[in-house]
Amino acid sequence: MNARKKIALVTGGIGGIGTEICRHLAQQGRLVIATHLPAEENSALAWQESQKQAGYDIELAAVDVTSFKSCAAMAQNIVDRFGHVSILVNCAGITRDIPLRKMEESEWSSVLTTNLDSVFNVTRQVINDMITDGFGRIVNISSVNAQKGQFGQTNYSAAKAGMHGFTKALAQEVAKKGVTVNTVSPGYIATNMMNAIPEEILNKIISTIPVGRLGKPDEIARAVEFLCEDGSGFITGSDLLINGGLYMR
Ligand code: CAA
């Protein structure tokens, strides 16, 4: 039998955690599309080539996830080129860490639009096709700092906490349609995002992680892969904490 591959769209797919998610979904037999910023086309093409060298065929889609219009154009382009998106992983995100008393309006709004508005902007484009097809898997990548808060992250913690509210509301709306919506909340994972944290502070944070180290992107991606399996249809509205014990619930 030569069933058509289901299409998986991963926003922020060329980032540290995103790359590992793309690889896991490709291994799962999905046709994977990673998004990148339009201005990052050259680095995205280099990334695609390095994935190919490693044995992964991953498609690219240029989009600004902060723009509803850009997301609509990307989604139409994907439908024209490949078909309906069945799996969506909202992984695009940024940090602009600074205490609130010093935070500029732009540092608030860029984090809220990139990390939270993006979830609406992209999910809204694909949700009706998932409902029509009677199958969908949506995974929103939140953060341990949505749950516990973090000094210097009022913007990021608010946006990431908002993602899980979105997850639980949408999960109820589409539960009877074969579409699941879940959140994965990573702790501190060894990616470039950690480079923005001063070394002394990062070491202090690591000393509070019960497992005693940063997580690996693979340790997040394997959970995303699991939630995206065809057989994971009874898991919806959940929030999977993967943080080395930093926050327990
Ligand atoms: N808790 C309590 N107090 C803290 C603190 C903390 N975590 N961090 C700093 N402070 C204190 C300092 O000791 C200092 O106190 P004094 O003035 O008494 O000496 C004061 O706050 C420093 O305040 P500043 O206004 O000078 O802070 P700053 O402008 O230097 O900014 C910061 C500090 C950039 C926010 C820095 O603390 C930082 O980078 N913190 C880490 C933030 C973080 O964990 N980000 C996660 C990024 S990764 C990610 O987000 C992925 C994910 O999902 C987990």
Concise synopsis of the structure shown:
The chain is an alpha/beta fold. Helix content is 46%, strand content 15%. The chain has helices spanning 16-27, 41-53, 68-81, 105-133, 144-148, 154-174, 199-207, 217-228; strands at residues 7-10, 31-36, 59-62, 85-90, 136-141, 179-186, 239-242.
- Strand order in the largest sheet: 3-2-1-4-5-6-7
Which ligands does the model contain, each kind named once? acetoacetyl-coenzyme A
Question: Count of helices?
Answer: 8
Number of strands: 7
What would you call the structural class? alpha/beta
Order of helices and strands: EHEHEHEHEHHEHHE
CA gyration radius, whole angstroms: 17 Å
CATH topology: Rossmann fold
Low-confidence parts: none
| Straight-line N-to-C gap | 44 Å
> What is the fourth-level CATH superfamily?
NAD(P)-binding Rossmann-like Domain
Helix content bin = 40-55%
* CATH class type: Alpha Beta
What general outline do the C-alpha atoms trace?
A: globular
**Portion in strands:** 15-25%
Number of domains: 1
Give the mean pLDDT: 97
CATH architecture tag: 3-Layer(aba) Sandwich
Tell me about the largest β-sheet: 7 strands, parallel
